[in-house]
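Researcher: We're reviewing a set of sequences before deciding which ones to prioritize for further study. For each one, I'd like a predicted 3D structure that I can look through quickly. This is Nitrogen regulatory protein P-II. If possible, include the structure in token form so it fits the rest of the review sheet.
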Amino acid sequence: MKLIIATIKPFKLEEVREALTEIGVRGMMVTEIKGFGSQSGHTEIYRGAEYAVNFVPKIKLEIGVTDGLADQVVDTITSTAKTGKIGDGKIFVLDIAQAVRVRTGETDEDAL
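Model: Here's the predicted structure for Nitrogen regulatory protein P-II, in token form for your review sheet.
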């Protein structure tokens, strides 16, 4: 089992969700976050004053999948979230040692 953590641009969320649903992803956790990467934020002008925006709004997706689906999920997120501009995001894939569905007590792949 794998945990896929992806950060994407907020306006890409619905498109990514639809694409993941089409390949069989049954659930995900979504969090609104702020962060920066190689773009290191940017400057904006508000009421004539320039100020630095050090953290950029992003969306964090957390998706638990079987080993067999992990590569397809990564490929789907990559192709769907890509704009070709700086700040498109990152994807991390981690091993899951154990999963439990609280309602039914199902474990591991059955819990996903």
